[in-house]
Amino acid sequence: MIVIMKPTAQPEQIESLKKELEGLGLQIHFSQGMNTTLMGLVGDTTRIDIGKIASMDIVEEVKRIQEPYKKANRKFHPADTVIKVGEATIGGGGFAVIAGPCSVETPEQICAVAQAVKASGASLLRGGAFKPRTSPYSFQGLRGEGIQLLLEAKKQTGLPIVTEIMSYEDIDLFEDVDVIQIGARNMQNFELLKRVGRLNKPILLKRGLSSTIEEFLMSAEYIMAEGNEQVILCERGIRTFETKTRNTLDLSAVPLLKKLSHLPVIIDPSHATGIPWMVEPLTLAAIAAGADGVMIEVHNDPPKALCDGAQSLRPEQFDALMTKVKKTTAFFQTL
Amino acid sequence: MIVIMKPTAQPEQIESLKKELEGLGLQIHFSQGMNTTLMGLVGDTTRIDIGKIASMDIVEEVKRIQEPYKKANRKFHPADTVIKVGEATIGGGGFAVIAGPCSVETPEQICAVAQAVKASGASLLRGGAFKPRTSPYSFQGLRGEGIQLLLEAKKQTGLPIVTEIMSYEDIDLFEDVDVIQIGARNMQNFELLKRVGRLNKPILLKRGLSSTIEEFLMSAEYIMAEGNEQVILCERGIRTFETKTRNTLDLSAVPLLKKLSHLPVIIDPSHATGIPWMVEPLTLAAIAAGADGVMIEVHNDPPKALCDGAQSLRPEQFDALMTKVKKTTAFFQTL
Amino acid sequence: MIVIMKPTAQPEQIESLKKELEGLGLQIHFSQGMNTTLMGLVGDTTRIDIGKIASMDIVEEVKRIQEPYKKANRKFHPADTVIKVGEATIGGGGFAVIAGPCSVETPEQICAVAQAVKASGASLLRGGAFKPRTSPYSFQGLRGEGIQLLLEAKKQTGLPIVTEIMSYEDIDLFEDVDVIQIGARNMQNFELLKRVGRLNKPILLKRGLSSTIEEFLMSAEYIMAEGNEQVILCERGIRTFETKTRNTLDLSAVPLLKKLSHLPVIIDPSHATGIPWMVEPLTLAAIAAGADGVMIEVHNDPPKALCDGAQSLRPEQFDALMTKVKKTTAFFQTL
Amino acid sequence: MIVIMKPTAQPEQIESLKKELEGLGLQIHFSQGMNTTLMGLVGDTTRIDIGKIASMDIVEEVKRIQEPYKKANRKFHPADTVIKVGEATIGGGGFAVIAGPCSVETPEQICAVAQAVKASGASLLRGGAFKPRTSPYSFQGLRGEGIQLLLEAKKQTGLPIVTEIMSYEDIDLFEDVDVIQIGARNMQNFELLKRVGRLNKPILLKRGLSSTIEEFLMSAEYIMAEGNEQVILCERGIRTFETKTRNTLDLSAVPLLKKLSHLPVIIDPSHATGIPWMVEPLTLAAIAAGADGVMIEVHNDPPKALCDGAQSLRPEQFDALMTKVKKTTAFFQTL
User: Residue ranges of the domains in chain C?
Assistant: First the structure.
């Protein structure tokens, strides 16, 4: 961290700040310019509050050099994190496909979709039981009953299940869920992050609509700092001025996150675009860019879906895509 | 709501969709173009799921005409909502000033600030007990103890208190809090919105960093739909590409929200800009634009603040600002 | 400027970079941390190419401390720039109102509007002759003929005129124009900026839709570096995710630009919002925030306007607004 | 186009609007709701000014159904446009690689890079002679001399050349240039678009930093409307809140543009990210997403580059990438 002092800062003020920072266990190195004094801070600066230092009268600006995350940082953990869920593996070189409907609706629907996506080669089943909806008047999900239906589909197919939690008060319902999802709107619900950080269960963390890469990794750090290091990062589109797609998929986030962190990175092209025919080109692009997996919405009857049917693939479309996914994954593994 | 059919839609398909929509209690009116059929839906369309209709093979596009919010809508509630908290009033023509430190730190700090802002004319005291911080390694607030200190400051000054809740599990601690704040990062934490919607206590709802005006009003609607109609809307800066200010204050949101809704609208220039000298021009601008109040960070010793000190005013700066606020408010009431 | 070296940088490589930078007339100061070497560069760094240094193998990062603009910088020119155009003055404490139609259409239209806005107290007349339109099929302006009509309106009313240039090839037509406008879409048309920088005529420079404050000032610097220091900065809304207003007016840009630069700063609420009833609250807010003026669209018959009629005020609406503008300006001059 | 009337619109006012629209050659169809009248406009609505109709007192809102572009629209031109330049082909199923330095600097530099990229398999040579730089104090390019050097490199290698024009006044210098580039900052420099629209030479049009897909296609339409239908669309990153990459590559724009338009679509990963190691994953992702080509910065000595060296690949890095590009292109052609 570098602290740039104002030209008006007096030597005794600078000395006093130096003492305070040394009290935090940091080493201080000075650089004296013609009319600027720079202070270089060496040591563990993750606990330093930039805003506090920046607010001092004698300080012009504070610049952080090191990343503020540690547990999620590849520098301190060079090997890929590999997450195993039942027979599925996320991270470490493969390409995991998580598929299923936006919402769990009926036993017939979820079991039919589960069997279809399993037959096509998906390795995990997704399905929303608790649904974050912009309008209080929209379908809010089957909630506890939805999780029961997912567990039934798991029993029938053997597929591990991924489903979203919206409030920690519901945690008991998630006991048999394999992977708990934290949605984009809760990416900075810090109390929830801390709570799931104490579980021994993989967490699929979605990037917030307007969260930077650094904030995204800091939210993963919240979970990991509590002890749970099984975090899967999911890029699902960011909010921009473009209106033709629901959000803008930031595919460059995939290689960037994999460079900065050892955690597995997947994308969600269904939510990113809201357009079913765009799922295929973006899934193949994600493989090419080095993603560890993808999460795709599949519904046996999209027009009848109670939520986001417009963006779902039909099972036969998903099956055709999976054929390409398998070939493409194999190709890039040998490239 | 208007449903635009694809040119390939067959008459029997259109007829079938018409029947389904009529089953939801809507009246359907057709407009037959040369190669397009339009369906106009008349009735209460707030419960219609646009995505579901849009996903049908025969549908080209669906366009909503009416706003999807009702309780927050000025069309159905023309008079301003006025919220009374102790002796303070928010909405209905005055200009309420909420002031206090970012975080509650010590009994001395919160009481000193409370007395200072009261003396200058603030009508409510703010202070963070539960603090949403990007980093798990930053100060997270005094939590329950912080609320106790706020209540002590309230006892000493008579100022009603505003403080943020981050998880409904902590609700018991908020029993004597006057106004509960929902922070920007929780604006779409729908479970929390529903819960505070069942309280009989004003809720100060902050706009999310990348939330549209419509989403903001829908989150207010979540609270109101549960029965709690005492919602204060707070614009606190949106996320844009600009980096010189922390966020970009969307001041045009003030007249727009007041046109669309009857709820009181305040701004938070401290968080919007992160720059203390910008609080004054933007507060005066907010009065000119018709805001119902402002929320300002004040700290007795900004460089020692445990959080966001850099953006806080000192009590004497706040006092100078309040002199201008009073004159400006009086001026605009007679303009 | 601070250059942060990689831990792997060898002493002879660092020495070689030091020599190169000293060759550019800079003084170099070192700060040796435990595992990082920092180089502080003192001197005129405006001509240093950050990207070039950042691309060196031995460099981790380069951070600029000083602003990259000089002529537009208030640090080197503390007094406000005041621009006089005929009897109008922009900057230096007053509040100039520029008003007129989006497009010049007919002699009757422009003269009627000119007389009306003059009678209400506008000090300059605006009107588009060359019109930047998203579609090639939309009305492109009367071009040379439009300028003739503006000059006729000027003759009738004495109001100096402001109109936009889109290509330097048309410069001869602008000989008698008082203030030349560079539109938002041309804010980084650097060849055009250089050309108008050689004129002896005020330039009204609009901020680009997604330009940062710093880029905006750098574009002013392009004009000023060629010798023309009469630049008026105009904030006209930036592009964000919000869709209820055409753009998002960044009102905080007003105090920020006035702090960073000595140039006058005005706003254009008509283009920023696209909504006529929002012009009044935002104009009053701009006065409160310290703006030097405003540019407002006025049309004698908005529904018949050939361009952007939807956002124009009618003369009687403009007149009512001007009454408030005068009172508000007077109020803030004594606050 | 659908015109939604206000509930207060009187029959004679509606009738009068109907007549006016019929006068423009449109057919009007009415839909009478309970309290809303809708007017459907059938015919060529590209020349209708939405803003003008929206500004009428009796109109609530106007919604466009058809795309406002025609010549660029795949609906009216289903077959891919294929552009041939010398022996290179862009569009129609192949994958064209345009490579070269950001700026042309010396004869040795441009010829060395040209020979290297040709040897690796590039089919066109890029190089900036006129350089759009944020700062007037940065290197502005060799201008006319730079074009001469490009032509010399073309003579030596046979590679057709692509270079940017910044002002039409310089057009004579571009006589022997094969493809003229319009940069992102000039995407809505409409006068320049019209001028290059009268040339018989391919135009490489870069997407503006904050331009929507629709605006991008409308700028292509400006060129095509003048007669030049050889337009290559280039996605080069949009401006968002993210700061880790220079811009955010909108890869979803590739399949979207190819669906909406018949024009070839390429990406520029060098400018989009500003990070050389990200060029490879994003180039491979672009092939997977269906792009027609890529434009990559290559410099023989990046740290010595006068512009954007930080984002350039070295020839050996480019060569390694081209090996993967050829295999990947071949793979996807058979997928």
Answer: 2-63, 74-334
